[in-house]
Design brief:
This protein has 357 residues and is an alpha/beta fold. The protein has helices at residues 42-48, 98-101, 154-157, 163-173, 189-200, 215-220, 232-236, 256-259, 283-287, 301-314, 328-336, and strands spanning 2-8, 17-23, 30-40, 65-72, 84-87, 90-92, 113-114, 134-138, 143-144, 181-185, 204-209, 225-228, 242-247, 262-270, 292-295, 320-324, 343-347. The protein is globular. Bound molecules: zinc ion (2 copies). One zinc ion (ZN) binds at residues 41, 43, 63, 89, 162.
Length: 357
């Protein structure tokens, strides 16, 4: 066992606070990672505030982790000490079910073990995430950072581990490519990745946003069209025109608005998980044009590695604002007001700059 420091929420109401806890001793296939950077995902906020009604406190959030290997279990073979690595949303799964065998550990039929707020299958302890100084992970759930990324890129690599893969996986699954017309709903942490990825895959991309001040940003990110979703006339121009929509908004909204933009056989995939269920949608819209409404959850380990390589090759990185861990509560408040372009990333070196509270 080793003592590590981090930030935790002790309950749904109080701010995150300095927290010391034990990491497990290295198992034969484990690697020990010094965490350099950790992205701040909207799920962290949902979990900390118990908005999905299943948080086990204390919770140490963080599943967009970039770090360096500092120790290896005796039976590891994939990594070297000193190597730069990443950890995303998953740290284990049953590895035997059909989903796991297909490399889709996020859909494990027994149980996916998430990076934080899951129960470790071996010692039954709670998993704790990247808002901390170190993490210990099985090497099979550890990702390599492509060498094409430079040292200065590392903070921005962190959000790829959730925002990147959450958007990459559905774009791949629904075969987005050169002849696709793709809609991206919402330009936040996920949306701004989706635009860049879909463009790099060769698609024609339309962004649908409710905020005027994001129009320029969307264009800069490569969007071919930007539509204010509140403007009926602008929306009408896109009716029956899109092959695929990735809907990244995590607050409930009218789905009919966007389903009407799909062509026959088109699919809208939801990737934002709201606090409450959506009001129902107009089924006729689906039936009369054989449209689909779908969902997608992050991505498996193999696909996450593939996404990292794709981003390195196409020079795709999120836009980020680096913060000290002491600013995390402020960052959460700003996230709620959409006051972030487009992802906060914690510089974990800041953790050691303050004494325990
Ligand atoms: Zn996330
Ligand atoms: Zn499984």
């Amino acid at each position: 066992m080793s003592k590590v420091q981090g930030y935790a929420a002790l309950n749904a109401k109080s701010p995150l606070t300095f927290f010391e806890f034990e990491r497990r001793a290295l198992r034969p296939h484990d690697v020990k990672i010094d965490i350099l950077y950790c992205g701040v995902c909207h799920s962290d906020l949902h979990k900390v505030r118990n908005e999905w009604k299943n948080t086990m406190y204390p919770v140490v959030p963080g599943h967009e982790i970039v770090g360096r290997i500092v120790d290896l279990g005796p039976q590891t073979s994939l990594f070297k000490i000193g190597e730069l690595v990443a950890v995303g949303c998953l740290v284990d799964a049953c590895r035997l079910c059909t989903s796991c065998l297909e490399g889709l550990e996020q859909y494990c039929e027994k149980q996916s073990i998430f990076t934080y707020d899951s129960i470790d299958p071996v010692d039954r302890s709670a998993t704790r995430g990247g808002y901390s100084s170190q993490i210990i992970v099985d090497e099979k759930f550890t990702l390599k950072i492509p060498t094409a990324f430079k040292e200065k890129d590392l903070p921005a690599v962190a959000p790829l581990l959730c925002a990147g893969i959450t958007t990459y996986s559905p774009l791949r699954h629904w075969h987005v490519g050169k002849n696709s017309r793709v809609g991206v709903v919402g330009l936040g942490g996920l949306g701004h990745m989706a635009v860049q990825l879909a463009c790099a895959m060769g698609a024609e991309v339309a962004v649908f946003t409710s905020s005027k001040n994001k129009v320029q940003d969307a264009k800069k990110l490569g969007a071919h069209h930007v539509v204010l979703s509140s403007e009926k006339k602008e929306m009408e121009l896109f009716i029956d025109s899109l092959d695929f929509i990735i809907n990244t908004v995590s607050a409930t909204h009218s789905l009919d608005h966007f389903i009407q933009l799909l062509k026959r056989n088109g699919t809208m995939c939801m990737v934002g998980l709201p606090e409450s269920c959506y009001p129902s949608f107009d089924t006729a819209q689906l039936i009369f044009r054989r449209k689909s409404l779908a969902g997608s959850l992050i991505g498996g380990i193999r696909e996450t590695q593939e996404m990292l390589e794709f981003c390195a090759q196409h020079h795709i990185l999120p836009e980020i604002e680096i913060i000290a861990i002491q600013k995390i509560n402020e960052a959460f408040e700003r996230m709620l007001k959409n006051d972030v372009k487009y992802r906060f990333v914690i510089d974990m070196a800041s953790l050691h700059s303050k004494k325990p509270i």
